[in-house]
């Protein structure tokens, strides 16, 4: 979309990243084709969002910084996500109020979670502005591999040997990507 070209070595390092994700997905014990297709669609949408935010943050005509972009995007997220939550999550308001009545700490947990989400989005915009949308997507794949390892350690989620090899290949690809970006500068 931006007609920005990377060095051929950068594109080559994306092969193990993508291959690792595909292998890890195929090795998932609870793999479901529909879920995989939805995951691909979500990844494509996330990539489009990253490219568009990169354009907005680097455009001379727009003059948006990370804070301003967050100011514009947060209300739009509420407009789309709040109705979906109310429709898809049965009695979510009643359950939340009941939890808050039983234990006031839930309010602090929600505030803490909201604060973390704010900083995640702000960091996301800053990374996009100072690197590129492609780097943000590669880091997202690395984050996914780390999240799987954490879920194994904390929740004892089952992972196949094939899945572990896929995640290892993804992390290896991310390291190669990082090295390729350093060399291209």
From TrEMBL:
Compartments where located: Membrane
A Pfam family: TPT
Mode of membrane association: Multi-pass membrane protein
Domain of life: Eukaryota
All residue ranges annotated as the Sugar phosphate transporter domain in the record: 9-178
Sequence intervals crossing the membrane: 7-25, 31-48, 69-86, 106-127, 134-155, 161-178
Protein known as: Sugar phosphate transporter domain-containing protein
């Amino acid at each position: 979309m931006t007609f920005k070209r990377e060095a051929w070595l950068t594109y080559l390092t994306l092969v193990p990243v993508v291959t690792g994700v595909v292998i890890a997905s195929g090795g998932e014990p609870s793999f479901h084709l529909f879920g995989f297709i939805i995951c691909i669609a979500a990844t494509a949408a996330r990539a489009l969002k990253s490219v568009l935010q990169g354009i907005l943050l680097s455009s001379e005509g727009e003059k948006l910084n990370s804070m301003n972009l967050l100011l514009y995007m947060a209300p739009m997220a509420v407009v789309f996500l709040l109705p979906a939550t109310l429709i898809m999550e049965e009695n979510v308001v009643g359950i939340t109020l009941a939890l808050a009545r039983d234990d006031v700490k839930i309010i602090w947990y929600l505030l803490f979670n909201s604060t973390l989400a704010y900083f995640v989005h702000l960091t996301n915009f800053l990374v996009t502005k100072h690197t590129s949308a492609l780097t943000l997507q590669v880091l997202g794949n690395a984050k996914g591999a780390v999240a799987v390892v954490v879920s194994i350690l904390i929740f004892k989620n089952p992972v196949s040997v094939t899945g572990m090899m896929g995640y290892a290949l993804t992390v290896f690809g991310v390291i190669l990507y990082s090295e390729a970006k350093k060399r291209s500068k």
